[in-house]
Here is the input.
Amino acid sequence: MKLYRLPIVMHEPGDETENKYLAETPALPGCRAWGDTSAEALEILQSLAAAFIESYRDNGDPLPPEVESVASDNDEPRVLSELLVAV
Here is the structure.
């Protein structure tokens, strides 16, 4: 099993997001999820991203390079979260 550290963009609720949180990962075009909370949107996105990657594999299609480049083996140290700091 491989782990993929994918970038996530979270959009706040608004007219464009039907007043829901919208989470997406630009590395997988079209991989978006909506939720009533940011946590719900992220949970759905995680399942959806896994389904996207499995679909690529099942169809024998290569993963986008930006996805393959962030893959790591399951036995490597795991990053649970990332910190974004703007200075």
The domain at 2-73 is CATH 3.30.160.250 (Double Stranded RNA Binding Domain). The longest strand covers residues 21-24.
